[in-house]
Design brief:
The chain is mainly β. The chain has helices at residues 61-67, 80-88, 97-100, and strands at 19-20, 22-27, 32-37, 40-45, 48-55, 69-74, 105-106, 115-116, 121-132, 136-148, 153-154, 157-158, 166-171, 174-178. The chain is built from 3 helices and 14 strands.
């Protein structure tokens, strides 16, 4: 039996999601901001690099262009309401989204923007490439520092055996949660 056609075609990208949603932080000496990004991925292991797609009309995009630094904080399920809230209001309208959505700042080790202290892990990145896509841009960043809670990330892997539940955005106000690892049978 053939699979039915996905309509509208503009929703077809959701077949590739759910991507891990992260909280991106930007800032300078005057102000910072936090916003969720689902369109992100690792692009290199050595040196470690990540990429994310950001709308150029968003409040935080000029920070990325000017400071060329950003943080990536990885939230777990406990932060789902804050993640959604940070994505529904603009930093142009709310001067402190950390306070508005009950998030704590954590001073980064290398970059100026803070990380989200409530998150289970964080990456500090410097922009190495900005690929203009018209209304959006793909920002490629080199990881210059990383941190993770040892109860959920050990020996280079996520540890789901202690109740870790990572968020994946399905679109709108819908999220999925990853909560276990499955190993393949070798034989």
């Amino acid at each position: 039996m053939r699979k039915p056609i996905v309509e509208p075609l503009s929703a077809a990208y959701r077949l590739l999601n759910p991507g891990l949603v992260v909280l991106v932080t930007v800032g300078d000496d005057m102000r910072d901001n936090v916003f969720p990004v689902s369109w992100n991925m690792p692009v290199s292991r050595d040196p470690g690099m990540v990429a994310m797609c950001v709308g150029k009309e968003h409040f935080s995009y000029p920070f990325l262009e000017r400071t060329r630094e950003f943080g990536i904080s990885i939230p777990d399920e406990s932060l789902v309401d804050a993640v959604y809230g940070c994505g529904t209001v603009s930093g142009a309208e709310v001067s402190d989204k950390f306070a508005r959505f009950g998030l704590m700042r954590e001073q980064s080790r290398v970059i100026l923007p803070p990380l989200v202290a409530d998150a289970v892990a964080g990456l500090e990145c410097r922009v190495v490439r900005n690929i203009d896509l018209g209304e959006a841009a793909i920002i490629v960043g080199q990881i210059v520092a990383a941190c993770a809670r040892p109860d959920v990330f050990r020996d280079g892997n996520w540890c789901f055996d202690r109740g870790l539940r990572l968020l994946h955005h399905l679109g709108s106000d819908c999220f999925a949660v990853s909560e276990r690892m499955r190993r393949v049978r070798r034989g």
